[in-house]
Amino acid sequence: xxxxxxxxxxxxxxxxxxxxxxxxxxxxxxxxxxxxxxxxxxxxxxxxxxxxxxxxxxxxxxxxxxxxxxxxxxxxxxxxxxxxxxxxxxxxxxxxxxxxxxxxxxxxxxxxxxxxxxxxxxxxxxxxxxxxxxxxxxxxxxxxxxxxxxxxxxxxxxxxxxxxxxxxxxxxxxxxxxxxxxxxxxxxxxxxxxxxxxxxxxxxxxxxxxxxxxxxxxxxxxxxxxxxxxxxxxxxxxxxxxxxxxxxxxxxxxxxxxxxxxxxxxxxxxxxxxxxxxxxxxxxxxxxxxxxxxxxxxxxxxxxxxxxxxxxxxxxxxxxxxxxxxxxxxxxxxxxxxxxxxxxxxxxxxxxxxxxxx
Length: 358
Prior knowledge:
Order of helices and strands: HEHEHEEEEEHEHEEEEEHEEEEEEE
Distance between the termini: 42 Å
Radius of gyration: 22 Å
Number of strands: 20
């Protein structure tokens, strides 16, 4: 009889639900959208190449084809879930953002966006799109590019936004905000190499110095013992080992960390799933990077980096055969004045953040 009772007790224990630690995750991504202009003439700007009568012959049908290409790629990258925070560059204005996030199947994800008109002579700007179901926007600003040695040169602003993560199942209000759920985001599009890499290296170092200064200010203002969560992302137009990133910004791969350095989650292409984010002749390079502070790397309270989640998104439909240099190359919208009807001249990047559920 005792053996029967023991067996019944064992079976009852086995039938009880297993209590496991649950986690929530949210994706953070960045993508250079490659000249994502609306098709209309802007009389306030001298640059109107991306219009029907402009040099690029940018018609409404071409605009909508690109819009559709981009939203399908975003859905694939997000695995049909909302992207929590999505940094972009080379978007012209709010019309473009509304067209892709409010007039396509992406609208089901309840996105909102942050955008400021900037000084770029072509009229392309950085932007931040965020899921209203996951984040509450606290504040936003832009930090202008400035080079004291060349004050006549203007480049893209650095876009900043501060968010609070919304706890699952309840509305986050100002009084409920926890420091561990506060995320500072900087979206960058540093000066290009159009005039030559060596001739423009100083311009990118200026952008790196501005960004580093803003991050240091956030860290310095934090209470003692608290490590702020700062995410920097963008098209830096430099590789992780170039001076602007490695020496001025002081961003290093986690395996190469030194005191005072930032964590470059794209500092090496090992484990990223692809060789690079753009291709120059036969060489793939990583210009598009996500860099974080120590607070994001920690496993304490609030959102933190899911180790090993950094990826270069590279769906097959975004690539085509490279007949000149072999392998694959990006399926672009344009190459110079030639229209190809593809996606972008950059691949997107992303990381996942985790939060232990209570």
